[in-house]
Amino acid sequence: MTKIAFFSILGKPLIFWLGLITFFLLIITAIIGLNKKRIKGFYRIHKGFAVTTVIFALIHGILSVSVYLF
């Protein structure tokens, strides 16, 4: 798992990129939530982004913890 977490992409480890993507997904999900009256299909889009954010956060968290455990 440590090799996966520290796999280099553009000079940075995978765990860094997953964290960055998770952060941006969280910001986008919040923006969609704040603009619910302006967005058609709000619930479907917001829920999709929320689920995607949780999946990325879980993968990021598992890889982060695995660095210290293994």
Q: What does this entry look like structurally?
A:
It is a single chain. Helix content is 76%, strand content 6%. The protein has 3 helices and 2 strands; from the N terminus they run αββαα. The protein has helices spanning 2-5, 14-34, 42-69; strands at residues 8-9, 12-13. Strand 1 (8-9) and strand 2 form a beta hairpin. The longest helix has 28 residues, at 42-69. The mean pLDDT is 92.
Secondary-structure element string: HEEHH
Low-confidence parts: none
Structural class of the secondary structure composition?
A: mainly alpha
Our estimate of the beta-strand percent is 5-15%
Global shape: elongated
What's the tally of helices?
3
Percent of residues in helices comes to: over 70%
N/C terminus separation: 8 Å
What's the average pLDDT? 92
In angstroms, what is the radius of gyration? 15 Å
Describe the strand arrangement of the main beta sheet, using strand numbers. 1-2
In total, how many beta strands?
2
Main sheet makeup: 2 strands, antiparallel
Key words describing this protein structure:
transmembrane helix; about 70 residues; two-stranded antiparallel ribbon; mainly alpha; transmembrane; membrane
